[in-house]
Every structure is written in C-alpha cells, then in structure tokens.
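Notes to self after the Tuesday call (sharing in case useful).
The group wants a holo model before anyone commits to mutagenesis around the pocket. I volunteered. Ligand is manganese (II) ion. Logging inputs and output together so the record is complete.
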Amino acid sequence: MKKFSVVIAGGGSTFTPGIVKMLLANAERFPMKKLVLYDNDAERQAILAQAIKIMLDEEVPDIEYEYTTDPAVAFTDMDFCMAHIRVGKYAMRELDEKIPLKHGLVGQETCGAGGMAYGMRSITGMLELIDYMEKYSPNCWMLNYSNPAAIVAEACRVLRPNSKVLNICDMPVGTLRRMSQIIGTTPDQLEVDYFGLNHFGWWTGVRGKDGTDYTDLVKKYVSENGYLNQIEVDTQHTDASWQETHKKAKDIYAVDPRFLPNTYLKYYLFPDYVVEHSDKEYTRANEVMDGREKQVFDIARNIIKTGTAKDNGFHIDSHAYFIVDLACAIAFNTHERMVMIVENNGAIANFPDDAMVEIPCIVGVNGPEPICQGNIPEFERALMYQQVMSEKLLVEGYIEGSYQKVWQAFVLNKTIPSASKAKEVLDDLIIANKDYWPELK
Ligand code: NAD
Ligand code: G6P
Ligand code: MN
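Result:
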C-alpha cells in the first residue's frame, strides 16, 4: 500500500497535536511515509513540534519527521498539505472579536466584521501556501480548513482557479455527530442533504445509509433542545459558550422549521441577542487562550521536560477523522459523500453559478463532484445571496485595494445594521490590521 507524505501548515496550531494523533490512529487506512510541520513562527511551532517528536519516536519511529519554517523543506515531495493557519494568531482574533463589539456589533471569528477582517488577513497567507505547494510539489493536494473558509474559498476561486485546494469545514461533520447521538447511532451510519454557504446553511434531510428517514426525529429534538446533547462525547465544542450556541439552534429552527439550521446562523438572525450576551472584555479568543491553547502548550512543555509522551500526552482529535476521509477519497477514489465548499455551477439551480456554496459532494480522485440540490426557497436564497455578495465584494476589494468595495461588503453583511456603523468599524479594523491588509484607497 502506498505511503503518503504530509505537511501540516500551521504546525504551531492548537489543533496540530490532536490531528497528528488522529493521523496515527488512522494509519491503517492512511499510512504515512513522512510528516513535516511547517509554520512561519519558529518559536511557537518548536514547542509543539519537539513534543510531537518525542511522541512519534515512542509510537511510530519509522515515520520520517521534520519541522521547519523553510518552505522548500516543507513542501518538497509532498502528497497532501493539511492547512490550518491563523494569520495574526490569537492576538488578532481577540481584536476581530473586540473591535466590532466596541461598536455594538457581533464580534466573532468568522462572521460579521471580525470575520471579514480575518478574511482579509487569511487570503494573503493562503495564497503564499498555495504558491509554495505548487512550486515544490505540483501534484500535491491542499486540504484547507483555515478560516474564514467562505472567504478563503472565494479568493481561491478567483485568484487560483486551477489549484488543487479543497476547502472543508468541520461544522457539518460536528453537527452530524450530534445528530447521530440524538438518533442513537453513529455518524458513519448517516447521510445528509444540505445547502448553504460556509457557516451559513441548512440540512434538508438526515437519513440512515439504509434509507431510514430521521429528519422529523431530529427536528423534534432541535425544536426543544437545539443541538445540545444529553451526554457530551465530543472533544470539541464543549466549552460553555459553545453549549449556548448549540442550544440557540432551537430559536434559529423556529424561524424556518422547514429545515435544520447551521448554528452559525445565530450571528446573522439574532445579532442583537448575540451582542447583548457577549462580554466585551472577555471573548471567545480569551476563552481559547486560557483554555485550549494553554492546555495544549502545557502538555507539550511537560512532554519535553519529562522526555516522554506516554502518560499525560496529547488528546486525540477524533472529530477530525473527516480530514482522513477526504485524503482517502482523493488517494483511493473512495467516492465518499462529504459536505464541502465548492463552486455552485448549477448544483443549487436558482443560485449563481460562480458562488462558493457548501453542499454534499461525491469525492474521488479528481476532487469533489457536487450533488444537485435543485431550487431552494426564497427566504434562504435571499439570505444567502446577500451574504455571498458580501463575501464576493470583500474579495474584490482585497484584490483591487478598494475601500469602497470593502465598505460595501460590510454594509451588505447582515450583522451590520447601517452604512455609518459599517464605516466606523471598518476604519478601526484598518488601523488594527495595518501590518496585514493590502492598503485600501
Ligand atoms: P493557532 O493560532 O493556534 O494556530 C495557527 C498557526 O498558524 C500559528 O502557529 C501561526 O503561527 C501559524 N501561521 C499564521 N500565519 C501563517 C503563515 N502565513 N504561514 C504558516 N503558518 C502561519 O490557531 P488555531 O485555533 O489552532 O486554528 C488554526 C486554524 O484552523 C484557524 O484558521 C481556525 O479558524 C481553523 N479551524 C478551522 C476549522 C474548520 O472547521 N474549518 C476548525 C477548527 C479550526
Ligand atoms: C467550528 C468551526 C470552525 C471554527 C471553530 C472555532 O469548528 O467550524 O470553523 O474555527 O469552530 O472553534 P474555537 O474553539 O476556536 O472557538
Ligand atoms: Mn468551520
């Protein structure tokens, strides 16, 4: 069986150790020849990378392993690049959340003004990775889950249309896991129908692979509890703020009970509620820095100090198995059915061909083949159109360095109530992002 060479870009990510463990756990179906960690922050990456080296030496000494900040070393002779970078790191995430809140607007990593600010930073970092990959390994595939995925995907569509980049989000998979608990089965026994944009979509059907329709059962549960489960078995999305988000899906569902909503719709449908329930001084970025980041880096430092990862090692990121599903689909032409972010091209019949939409696809050796979803209802179509045009204008504004277009993107975003608010928050974000954004004129 072929063994694969994998580079993880964003080697210093809080998710890297869990994903490496997940890759090891899946070694039978996805064997690795070589693993390289790549980051542009040598110091941050080294802490995790040294601890991972100790773990690999103990568990799988035959895998070649390196960590580097040199793109030539990182990207040469690679089959897959798993990309999870955060341009500007948590310091900038904190500002993405706090600056909009200061203006009474939703402060969120991927939605609204903060999401657009992050998007304008991510495009540059992602293009850099794609260009390195194509220079050093033209046949390599990039499996990207760097955020904000909707904006990154649109930028790739426009600026790197022929690149082998697949954009995927873990929210559809994470929610499927919750649905499987509601139904009393496992996610691998289910399949879904879904349409939308990234962090902006709806499930139209949930069924067993044997054909049993579970949609009404899940709807009834969500109408009472949202996606909040009775027993928490997930490793991700368990902090208090996430529990609130799972619960809030009940109210999103009430707006249109035809479909099961993505939890991220709360930022667009209930922005006033979200702002009222946000702590302007302590946001999700703070929760993550004091929680996941601290925990992962403490474990790493302890592994380095004790010289072993045997006890008190990293936790496996089991929710990330979908990344291996995707890699296997490409490598072995498995025709896995996966919800992915792809160019519409008619899959949603009454939506623009050139919109990046999130829909189920059949994934094989040449990438995803989108599954037709037909016409969607006017309510969802109108919401999606407003949002997708906001994303498109943002990317155009980035490319052209156009203040006007970026402002329009902010005005169109449903989390921002007026053109004057849009201008106020944009002007603050321009100052905060001066080291990252192209100059806007
Ligand atoms: P993190 O800040 O811990 O890690 C990101 C790493 O990227 C840092 O070590 C940073 O130095 C590095 N980096 C930044 N710019 C870079 C560049 N140009 N080249 C190379 N490395 C660079 O962040 P995190 O919370 O672990 O999240 C990582 C990413 O994964 C984020 O984009 C996050 O939004 C995303 N994410 C996506 C999903 C999904 O479903 N799509 C799920 C979880 C996390
Ligand atoms: C979900 C989303 C990701 C997002 C993450 C944030 O998984 O699908 O796109 O990055 O949540 O999680 P965090 O724990 O960093 O707030
Ligand atoms: Mn996501």
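Two things stood out.
The mean pLDDT is 97.
Residues 335 and 423 are 46 Å apart (CA to CA).
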